Amino acid sequence: MRRGTPERYAYAADLWPKNQLWKMQGEPARYAPDAVVQPGSEAEVLAICAAAAERSVPVIPYGAGSGVCGGTVPIRGGVIMDVRRLRNIGQVDPLDMTVTVDAGVIGMHLEETLAERGYTLGHFPSSILCSTVGGWVAARSAGQFSSKYGKIEDMVVGVRVALPSGRIVETHESQPDDLTALYVGSEGTLGTIVSATLRVHPAPETQVFRGFRFRTLDDAVRGIRLLMQSGKEPCLVRLYDPVDTVLHRSKDPATVVKDDSESPSFLHGLLDSALGRGAKKAGIALALGNPSLLNRLANTVAAECLLIVGFEGATAVVDRDAPAAWRLLEDAGGVDGGEGPGRQWLEKRYAVSFKQSALYAAGAFVDTLEVGCTWSRLLPVYHAVRNALAPHALIMAHMSHAYREGCSIYFTFAAHRRDPKALERHYDRVIEDALTAVIREGGSIAHHHGIGLAKRDHMAREHGAGLRLLYAAKDAIDPFGLMNPGKVLPDRAVTQ
Ligand SMILES: Cc1cc2nc3c(=O)[nH]c(=O)nc-3n(C[C@H](O)[C@H](O)[C@H](O)COP(=O)(O)OP(=O)(O)OC[C@H]3O[C@@H](n4cnc5c(N)ncnc54)[C@H](O)[C@@H]3O)c2cc1C
After folding, report:
1. How many CB atoms lie within 10 A of CB 205?
2. How close is the Cα of 63 to the center of ligand 1, in Å?
3. Could you tell me if residue 91 is inside a domain?
């Protein structure tokens, strides 16, 4: 157990932008834990749960702290239970095609180990280098290849969970009243996941990627819907809206998104500057100082949309499905841009978001919001959020995690204020406006980042009376409210 100041600082925050906004106001650890424990076995996890229950001390399960919704922020103090010493990867069961993995295993270690044995889990979140299996399961994570392999909830066959009472519960999908779904997505509020049994697949024999240009977002959305409803199984579907397309345009001349003017490179420079990629403080403040104008400019200049699609798996299947998919997308209005955009994306697939610090250093924020939509709600939600935020923040989006019934929209937005307190107020308003627009238009407030603190006060509007069931489960499993208090579920007073 560690109680020193460095540990308390190190575990005070996850990657929720609010932590950063508090730091900018001189508070590096607004909510610090009282202690940090790093159990090395299931027995130690149970002993910690029992000791905490005896003393009425909150317990916050902690994977790698890569969460972006404040899920591990210890708002009521207590003990951070860092599970990264639980790192056993079992043998693959070749008959069941499953593997049982400890919660503290870092994603990339699991995928590399499986690859050495000829398998893949198929779960590749952008944070794979800095997130754990337990964190994935607890936050209902999605990987970049979710269109083929599903989200983590589609991969979990069962879990072992240490309950706050100090007992173990083990679930398995073969049980008649399987309780796995209760714990998947519980974000540490019902217990500590100590291991998970996951589905695996044979390692892919081949992989192909293709970029397509679409004249309009509507055409491109129609194209990916038809693709996902055609029965083919692309692993990757990433559609950038016109503004995001400018940022992702390929250096390969064959795939440049808009080829006939200087404007895209001008806009590229402006957006680069607004998003802090090597730009100076004054440039960022200037670019983000008038978001309405910047959005208008971006919308005027940006035109086409880039779609990247990938297939992987057995060669015979990929050779059959990929060309048929390319034809389908061309019939839907796509212009084939070759392999370049996909290969380029693949090279940088994990090099995300670490450039944010320049923006924060310049007195701005950047955040993302991933929401779930059925196909019929996708464009209404997209336009509603953009309209709600355009006066207040630079906004762009891509659509990834496409399925037969719908797709997620991943918004990125950034804004600047001179005063850090005003910046936090502005941030709160932007989030509130965006989530209100999502709910009003029939989207879902979260697709794969979880709820944490960031979205918990919108849970009542999303679930209505269903929230009572969640409170009932919480009361039954954690009657003293010690597991990760204050997360996921809004305070009851607010909902009554
Ligand atoms: C740059 C970047 C890129 C990202 N890309 C993706 C992406 O592509 N896809 C995606 O889904 N997410 C992504 N995320 C978000 C984040 O990585 C995921 O939410 C991830 O699942 C969190 O894992 P973690 O181990 O870091 O969990 P933590 O942040 O430590 O915890 C997250 C939540 O899970 C709970 N928890 C953690 N471990 C356990 C456990 N063993 N038992 C019970 N509860 C537990 C915590 O209490 C907390 O509520 C990204 C984040 C960053 C910073």
Report:
1. 12
2. 7
3. no
Instruction: Please indicate, yes or no, whether residues 290 and 390 belong to a single structural domain of this protein.
Output: yes
Examine the domain organization and report whether 184 and 121 are in the same domain.
yes
Rounded Cα distance, 119 and 98, in Å: 10
CB 102 within 8 A of CB 89: yes
| Residue 263 falls inside a structural domain | no
Residue nearest to atom 16 of ligand 1 (CA): 67
Q: Which two tokens stand for residue 403?
A: 């399925």
Residue whose structure tokens are 């005027």: 300
* CATH code for the domain in which residue 134 is found: 3.30.465.10
Do 393 and 414 meet the contact criterion of CB atoms below 8 Å apart? yes
Taking the CA of residue 188 as reference, the ligand 1 atom at the shortest distance is 44
Q: pLDDT tens for residues 157-182?
A: 999 999 999 999 999 999 999 999 99
Are 366 and 439 in a shared domain?
Answer: yes
d(CA 66, ligand 1 centre) in Å: 5
* Residue 104 amino acid letter: G
Q: Note if the pTM is more than 0.85.
A: yes
In a domain, 90, yes or no: no
- Rounded to the nearest angstrom, the distance between the alpha carbon of 12 and the centre of ligand 1 is 15
> Does residue 266 belong to any structural domain of this protein?
no
- pLDDT tens, 146-161? 999 999 999 999 999 9
